[in-house]
Amino acid sequence: MREINNLNETLLFCKALGSDIRIKIVKLLHERGPMNLNELSEVLGVTNGAMTAHIKLLAEAGVIKITHSSGKRGSQKICSLREMKVIVNPFRHACAVNAYAAEIPIGSYCNYDVSPACGLAGPQSVIGEIDDPRYFSAPERVNAGIIWFANGFLEFRIPNYIKRGQTLKEIKFSFELSAQVPGGCEEFPSNVNFSINDIPLGFWSCSGGFGAPVNGYNTPSWWPEGWATSGLLKVLTVNEEGSFIDGSKISDATVDALKIDFRSSIILRLAISRTRSIPCGGLTLFGKGFGNYGQDIRFEALYKDSE
């Protein structure tokens, strides 16, 4: 079961279902179980290109999940429903807690350790030189709209505005991510690991990076052809029940385990660690001026006053 309990996720969910074709896709997957892209296109009489766009919206909203399997004609995208039951309750926290929010520029990381292939770019050009981690310390990094690296981590200092006697109930982030690849490639698996204050929260498996011919809506025209141009919008939530990506649980790490009070630092880490089972790896983080969503790292904290 998935619970949607804020307005942003509700909007994304409703947008994904705001189409007769996408409603038919959901019905088919419920009735028949997992289906590949070609099967869905044939049954619904939709071109593969149009079907890919519909599937992408449903996946971004967490309605379906996409896996890959080998077939006679190469790898196939297999689509299936992520959850069989969804509760939409956008005002669950409205009366119980207070909230504050902020948007963190992706170039304002406070610590890093990255390995090539790597780089960062601003609205007008690449910052420094590609594949040289030294430029991750360049003053111009604060203007970055896209950052990529094959291995390592970025850390962001998140503002803590709770006061003495207040208790953090939920912490939430949204960001646009894809795997790091030299060019667009939909089959380049990568595990993105998340932690707060060195406490592991779990990981999200990204299938690949997305480049031409599907260009990011905000990606500038000078961006080299074939390079990653957009990602998927992911929502990381840590609350009293555990840690979640797009409403799906990734670990039992709760907000209480973070032990955050009015004196605490809040350090979010996005990390890649290559393993034998995930040989490709890498991370691309999109900010304002790049990708499809035109945002940096959005952050929201819910907290409760002492009774």
Describe the structure in your own words:
- With 307 residues, the chain is mainly β.
- Helix content is 14%, strand content 38%.
- The protein has helices at residues 7-16, 20-32, 37-44, 48-60; strands spanning 2-4, 35-36, 64-71, 74-81, 86-88, 98-104, 111-121, 146-158, 167-178, 190-196, 199-206, 232-239, 242-245, 248-251, 266-272, 283-286, 297-304.
- Helix 1 (7-16) runs antiparallel to helix 4.
Number of helices, counting only DSSP H or I runs of 4 residues or more: 4
The shape, in one word, is globular
The helix/strand class is mainly beta
Give the SSE string. EHHEHHEEEEEEEEEEEEEEE
**Largest sheet report:** 12 strands, antiparallel
Q: Measure the end-to-end span.
A: 31 Å
Strand fraction? 35-45%
Share in helix? 10-25%
Q: Give the tally of β-strands.
A: 17
Integer average pLDDT: 86
From the alpha carbons, calculate the radius of gyration and give it in angstroms. Answer: 20 Å
Q: Which runs of at least 5 residues are low in confidence (pLDDT < 50)?
A: none
Give the gist of this structure:
The protein is mainly beta and 307 residues long.
Q: Could you name the key traits of this structure?
A:
307 residues, mainly beta, twelve-stranded antiparallel β-sheet, three-stranded antiparallel β-sheet, 4 helices, 14% helix, 38% strand, globular
Write the layout of secondary structure elements.
Blueprint (H helix, E strand, L loop, with lengths): L1 E3 L2 H10 L3 H13 L2 E2 H8 L3 H13 L3 E8 L2 E8 L4 E3 L9 E7 L6 E11 L24 E13 L8 E12 L11 E7 L2 E8 L25 E8 L2 E4 L2 E4 L14 E7 L10 E4 L10 E8 L3
Parallel strand pairs: 1-5
Antiparallel strand pairs: 2-4, 3-4, 6-17, 7-8, 8-15, 8-16, 9-12, 9-16, 9-17, 10-11, 10-15, 12-13, 13-14
